[in-house]
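Help!! Second protein's tokens look totally different from the first
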Amino acid sequence: MIKLVKHVVIFCTVMCGTFTIVTSPAVAQTSGEEKIDALQKELDIEKAALRLATQRGTFGVSIGAAVGAGLVLVGAGFGIGRIGGSAVESIARQPESAAKVQTAMIISAALIEGATFFGLIVCLLTIIL
């Protein structure tokens, strides 16, 4: 009985997939003029966005802010990773000082995370404003 159910499910899946593949081009066909109109609208939107960015004179600033936000996040991840690795190594060497090391690790990670959020917000505000 279970094999029959499996075969029915596989058959239905294959048939639905085949039906979708076969009928989708027929359903989705548009005339050449509609395709041209859609491409023209897309091109107009891209031109308008580029014109707005260059008129404001912030195109380069936006790219710089985006790169800065990425560097802030990568640096924070690297720093917190080093803190965690060093804390684990320290606890492995001296298990009796685990509580002090863990507290210092959490405080350091929180400070790095706070600085990261500040840098990220500055970069995002540069893009938005």
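Here's the second one for comparison:
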Amino acid sequence: MHKTLIALFVTCVALFGAAPAKAQEAAAPAATPPASPAAGGEPYRSAMRSQCEDELEKDADWRADVKLRIAPEVHAEDAQQMLTNRRHVVMAYAALWALVAGFVVFMWLRQRSLQAEIERLEREIAQAAKE
């Protein structure tokens, strides 16, 4: 959801780039190159962000159009995340198979133990019957 909102904002800024000249001139002094978060500075925020968010709230068709435009990008990000999580899925299946195999071995050993107990009891009954 958070990635979708960021992508919506980026698309909004790209679509809103053709703002009137006054707005561009007013925003020019405030516009600084984006600071990298690693450099310890605040990340760049457009002066037109609030206006863009307000317009997106008013125009549901535009919001839907923006969502449709970014859907392939979001889908690609989700697919990449799923591919990177494939290792975890394989590990989970391996753990489940190990548990199932352990359970089967436990039941086999228990069955052998019970079978030996039954044979011992049958021998004791047969010996008691002879006496």
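Reply: Different proteins will give different token patterns, so don't panic. The radius of gyration is 34 Å.
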